[in-house]
Amino acid sequence: MSYQVIWFRKSVNQLQLLDRSVSFETARAIVSEHLPLAVKDMEAKGLDPEDTDHWWESLLISGVIKIENAQGKLFKVAIYLVNDQKVAEKALETVESKKFRIIRTVLGIDQHWIVLTDARKPHSNDKWMDVLYEQIDRNSGKSGCALIEMW
Fold this sequence. Notes:
Blueprint: H1 3-14, H2 24-34, H3 36-44, H4 52-58, E1 63-68, E2 74-82, H5 85-95, H6 98-107, E3 111-117, H7 125-136, E4 145-150
Helix pairs in contact: 2-4, 2-6
């Protein structure tokens, strides 16, 4: 797990936005069923099958938050942190796919945001609050997916 993921989870936990309703067992089952090539890839790389981060990484999820928009509607949002523009664009393309739309439905996730950010320094809770609430009040389009640049 990268420092940026640790920093992110710490911030959204402090902001009381972190959602822990999706279990590791659920994530593993979903990856196994919907992304069998990811499982084979993990096995080929000799990755520890008990390490939860590998399974979440396969789902392009660094964390899940619950956040309310200005109209009072609650959303469950998957967040994936990256620090490279090309990786971010490819991840957005992937999460907008039909396969990932199905995965979001199974997980009960309303939106999936790719956050392009600097991996060398944490953002303040205030910065996260501004970015996340600004995005939830924006229209993420039909797919519910978005690429957010946060430098």
